[in-house]
Write a structure and sequence with these properties.
mainly beta, 122 residues, 11 strands
Length: 122
């Protein structure tokens, strides 16, 4: 049974940092991309970052230069380092998996975690 569990969310002041973790079980991470998504209150869910199985990464423009996605296949884990956080980054953050690589539109993800809440105070 595939499971993904996010952690690391919390309350942080504007300009601060958080590091989210996504830990998986029930599968081997090596051949999967991990995407990070967020959903703010009243807004649609959006993909923000992805790390493919080959290590290539991509980011939505609003987080480029501030967020870094990484992975540790041995630990079946992925991480999202978030720096210089802004109030508009406030959202529930989710990780999800997809075979090999994320689509450009971040669609077609297979398994999802339950999310972790990030709140950035201004």
């Amino acid at each position: 049974q595939v499971q993904l569990v996010e952690s690391g969310g919390g309350l942080v002041q504007s300009g601060g940092s958080l590091k989210l973790a996504c830990r998986g079980s029930g599968f081997t991470l090596d051949n999967y991309a991990i995407g990070w998504f967020r959903q703010a209150p009243g807004k649609e869910r959006e993909g923000v970052a992805c790390i493919n199985s080959d290590g290539n990464t991509h980011y939505v423009d609003s987080v480029k230069g501030r967020f870094i996605v990484s992975r540790d296949n041995l630990e079946t884990a992925a991480y999202l380092q978030m720096d210089n956080l802004k109030s508009e980054d406030t959202a529930n953050y989710y990780c999800a998996t997809k075979w090999k690589s994320c689509d450009r539109d971040y669609g077609g993800m297979d398994f999802w975690g339950e999310g972790t809440l990030v709140t950035v105070s201004s």
